[in-house]
Amino acid sequence: MRVIIYTGKGGVGKTSMAAATAVKLAREGKKVLIMSTDQAHSLGDSFDCKVGREATAVTDNLDAMEIDTVYEGEKSWGNLKDYMKRLITSRGEGGIEAEELLVFPGLEELFSMFKILEMYESGNYDVIIVDCAPTGETLSLLKYPERFSTLIDKVLPMKKVGVKVAGPVVEGLMKIPMPGENVFDDVEYLMDKMERLHKLMLDTDTVSLRVVTTPEKIVISEAKRNFTCLYLYHYNVDAVIVNHIYPPKAMEGYFNKWIKRQEEGLTEIKECFGEVPKIYVELQDSELRTVDDLGRIGDLMFKDMAPDAVLFKKEMYSVDSAARTLTIYLPFAAKEELELNQDGSEITVGVKNERRRFPVPAEFKELNVAGAKFEDGYLKIQFA
Q: 31-45, 177-191, 274-288: which has the minimum mean pLDDT?
């Protein structure tokens, strides 16, 4: 099975590109599911039909789904949420909106990821296409398997045996409710799902991300930042979709000034994304709101390639034991934006406001970071 995730800035046409890919594959005989993780769902609009939280048949071989994060959240952590609500309100006199306090940043994105995992593990489809929320939410969604796993380890270090022994005493003295077995079941359930999810997302033979952009400078800049962060988290970007390209006949008269700007944007995309395959899609003369329209665009996008193939793969980090160096590929990052720290057996690499923890390679576990240099998009960390 393949999982292909479409991401990019809001308004660049991610939903249309994802839907066109799904229709193309379905017409080739593949069993396809397209899922939306965006809270402002628009899949139903693209297919001009009602799409719900369960798989809805759109056409032959093609199902669609708009993920309901509230519903998925209750399935994933209902008992844990109830306990935390009791914990928050146990010493209060009212006035606290516990339900609002329990909506942690990024948690809804995590539940969306769990639904992707669930559908992948069902084995009912050949290809899953994911139409993601705009860039910021997408990055939050993709880094949460790792981040939330660490959070649970730190926030809930309690053990079942300890709670059974000391729980009644603590509850009596402190007037704080102790968690029951069902709470620990939820934690173990979450941890297990996150481990499986993290393993899936890093499987570059199964999961690919495709960045959708337009030829405008500001959109290209965000696409480059997105690209860097995805590589920071070791996700494979196998294509860049360049959408909304004005055809030459549309650039006459009033839009004549856009010709040079579009050419500059297309040149920047070609130069910056180098070896990554690029798919160019012209701006259409009408909305894409039918399966036939989407199928036509899918044919144009993938006229000489298989839509579900891994179109490109690049090694994101490598270890040179002889030279004692760890090399991490960070395209488009600037030297002044980078941070590097070591904490025991882990190193933390930061690019602007994004942080990623890497385990120190086993070969260097007795060594410390001695220095680093950043050249041509590669961060080379020296151990001694």
A: 177-191
β partners of residue 319: 326
pLDDT reading at 95 higher than 50: no
Find the radius of gyration of the CA atoms of the chain.
23
Number of domains in the chain: 2
3-state secondary structure of 34: strand
Query: Hey, which of 73-82, 322-331, 344-353 has the most confident mean pLDDT?
Result: 322-331
d(Cα 321, Cα 369) in Å, to the nearest integer?
14
Residue tagged 């022994």 (tokens)? 165
**265 plus 133 within the same structural domain:** yes
pTM, entire model: 0.82
Among residues 272, 299, 314, the one where a domain terminates is 314
From CA 113, how far away is CA 120, in angstroms rounded?
Answer: 11
72, 109: one domain: yes
What span, in angstroms and rounded, lies between the C-alpha atoms of 139 and 226? 8
Distance from C-alpha of 298 to C-alpha of 7, rounded to nearest angstrom: 17
159 to each of 143, 167, 171, 197, how far by Cα in Å? Answer: 27, 11, 16, 24
Q: Please state whether beta strands 207-213 and 2-8 pair in parallel, antiparallel, or not at all (unpaired).
A: parallel
Could you tell me if 170 and 282 lie in one domain?
yes
| Run of H or E including 122 | helix 107-122
What are the tens digits of pLDDT across the range 343-372?
888 899 999 878 888 889 888 988 999 999
Q: For residues 272 and 224, is the Cβ–Cβ distance under 8 A?
A: yes
Q: Which of 83, 143, 153, 54 is nearest to 107 (CA)?
A: 143
**Average pLDDT of the chain?**
83
55 DSSP 8-state letter: -
156 and 230 fall within a common domain: yes
Enclosing domain of residue 348: 317-383
Same domain? For 187 and 80 the reply is yes
Q: Which residues partner with 355 through β-bridges?
A: 350
Q: What angle do CA 8, 10, 16 make, to 5 degrees?
A: 75
Q: Are residues 305 and 324 in the same domain?
A: no
Residue 59 tokens read as 């056409």
| 126 in the same domain as 54 | yes
- Which of 271, 288, 314 finishes a domain? 314
CATH code of 45's domain: 3.40.50.300
